Amino acid sequence: MTIESYSVIGKRLPLIDGVDKVSGVAKYTADLALPGMLMGKLLRSPFPHARVLNVDASKALALPGVRAVITGADIPGAKYGYFRSRRDETGLTCKARYIGDPVAAVAAVDGDTALEAIDLIKVDYEELPAVFDPEEAMKEGAPLVHEEYERNIVATREFNFGDIEEGFKNSDHIREDRFSSQAITHGVIEPRATLAQYDTSGKLTIWTSTQSPYVVRRDLSLVLSIPEGKIRVIKPYVGCGFGGKVEVDPHQVVAALLSIKTGKPVKICLTRKEEISTTRLRVPMRVYVKTGVKKDGTIVAQYVKCVADGGAYASTSVLLMYNSGLTCLIPYRIPNFKFDGYMAYTNKAVGGPMRGHGANQPRFAVESQLDMIAEDLNIDPAELRLKNATQAGDTSISGLVFNSCELSKAIKESTRHAGWDKKRGQKGSNLGIGLACGGFVSGARIAGHTASGSNILVNEDGSVTVLTGSSDLGQGSKTVVAQVVAEELGLSLSDITVISGDTETTPIDPGTFSSRVTFYAGNATLIAVREVKEQLAKVAAEHLEANKQDLVFHSKKVFVKGSPDRSIAFSELAKMAESLGQGRLIMGKGYWAPPNTQFPDRKTQYGNVSGAYSFACQVAEVEVDPETGQVKVLKVTVGDDCGQVVNILGAEGQVEGSVVMGLGQALTENIIFAENGEIMNPSFQEYKIPTAKDACDVVTLEVGSPDPIGPYGAKEIGEGLLISTVPAITNAIYDAIGVRITELPVTPEKILEELQKKRKGS
């Protein structure tokens, strides 16, 4: 079908929950309250590495209004963690591994009392040697953050496809460069919060700001020694996640344990300082890249080495290091490729998943180096990328199958629209233009449960209720699910109610991450609604005396193709279908995972890890003041291949959000660590996220063609776009002033320092 054939898909539609959010009706976890509710607070270690010898809570317990104090010794179960092989957290610890690691917690009648009680707890520590640099941490004899991991190496990943040495021998030109990217915070609008209630039947109910309710249930079951069937996790409205709310956080464990101990509901709301300094960060990484090319710019061989600072706990380290290597093979044809990835524990705040999960850091390095190679060979950077761009029908050397790909079109359209040929290389103008490309998975196939499910019920009045395990964090997945149902049944979005993210009522779903929701949940919903449609069509065909295949569901009625007067209202049909015989339910269920993936071979690492891959080219235009080093991003033109666009308004929002987030990572955002690992800028006063004044003009060019696997041909758009924003900006800065910054962020100080070196060199 073409876009003109759809009534809802591919249209510009507002979010179905948008009015509730802007009017203040929407309730987030921090807004919730239960009778008799207590407030909890966490006591955090002031040392980066220290053993807890003793906790004296007598003064805190004597404070009026305090109901309970717990410590690491009260944790009843096993360690938890996202991957079975890397479970290393307990919520409260008896050995602090970074400044801010929680060692005790309090429940009191109100927040002020809880804070006062925290100050009254006396903890005796034994300070231990600490390590703060990942390369130092991997040296023999370095202090061990976790004793069971030699040289503090928590995750490694090696790829070796083709013949890398032969590839470099056959190259006409080789470059070797080093780059580094910084730790940044997710900058979510809503700091994390959890409300826990343990009742007399032994049932634990958790309302929490999360991307993955089922992951929360699983890990709470482990650490609390409670069967999963006795835990219910409910996701209220969530104010953004960007990957940071995928995993279980200590405050979730603590709220649950305090509720169990007191028999009362307990709520914990993190402060902005806690949100920035004690939750997940984007993993800082050092990247070494060696690329060999022919004289015409054809890539022959590439070697990438990444050294990542994981901080104090493993988080999703295994997957992050895999992604860092895997995503290098998406946008371009590389016949010989080698990757070495290492993540080390350090005594710093934990690095974890963030939008683009492991792809951003090496993409910055590779795209920067491609521009450097283009200059070495006197080739236009756009032409170099066109020469190497992945094409539809390709299979990468690692086994990634690209059934759909419009990267070449994205490059051509974005450069044409931005005026690339006219604006490139304007010497002395302080204006620059740069581009970068990227690609990403539409949900990576990982071990364990990866499928999505949807259940659909048609009500007697013709309205429809959808139960989906997918989690809407503000990105609009509930609206996408509603669009699928409305398109198939000929209804409007107002006829659809979407209930998501409740482990008691919605189908099992691993959560919102890896840009999988539209691809997975969209297809699961499509299966379910077509089952419903089949049931209704059978009844309508008998009533209208027509063949089922001749029926059209449109405009809230069902009619015979070519004879719109032979129709029945959808609401009437729903009541009719449910009233047949002794009555029946019109229900459908769908369960889906990509049929075309192949889990990578354990030895060779060959395999197709996703059902589809997105592609993008971004062209950034900047103005740089050589006197101050200030950079102003003027415009970013995005050529985006996300397949068939489901919601134009939603897609544009994803593009604009990615660009602004990338702008911050490129220019202003940076977690500053003191010598002892303490985070020195844990507020939005000191940590500089872009504001509306910093945002630039964003042009979105949707260039994709429908993917054969995605729902209606849709692919991901949530993460892949961000990957190319940062190098597009840094490449534009080089075009403007002729200096290249290889360490993020690109601050005025770094620009001025490099300009001074350039002047001295000339």
Summarize the structure.
With 762 residues, the chain is α+β, with helices and mostly antiparallel strands. The protein folds into three domains: 3-25 and 451-592, Aldehyde Oxidoreductase, domain 4 (2-Layer Sandwich), CATH 3.30.365; 32-128 and 189-239 and 245-278, Alpha-Beta Complex (Aldehyde Oxidoreductase, domain 3), CATH 3.90.1170; 281-445 and 600-761, Aldehyde oxidase/xanthine dehydrogenase, molybdopterin binding domain (Aldehyde Oxidoreductase, domain 4), CATH 3.30.365.
Please describe the topology of this protein.
Elements: H1 18-23, E1 38-44, E2 50-56, H2 58-62, E3 66-71, E4 95-96, E5 102-108, H3 111-120, E6 122-127, H4 134-137, E7 153-161, H5 164-169, E8 173-181, E9 193-198, E10 204-208, H6 213-224, E11 231-234, H7 250-262, E12 266-269, H8 272-278, E13 281-282, E14 285-293, E15 299-311, H9 317-326, E16 337-345, E17 351-352, H10 360-377, H11 381-388, H12 407-418, H13 420-423, E18 431-441, E19 452-458, E20 464-468, H14 477-489, E21 496-500, H15 517-544, E22 551-554, E23 557-560, E24 563-569, H16 570-579, E25 586-592, E26 613-624, E27 631-641, H17 648-667, E28 697-702, H18 720-737, H19 748-761
Parallel strand pairs: 1-12, 10-11, 13-17, 15-16, 20-21, 27-28
Antiparallel strand pairs: 1-5, 2-4, 2-6, 3-5, 7-16, 8-14, 9-10, 9-12, 14-15, 18-26, 19-20, 19-25, 22-23, 23-24, 26-27
Helix pairs in contact: 6-7, 10-18, 14-15, 15-16, 17-18
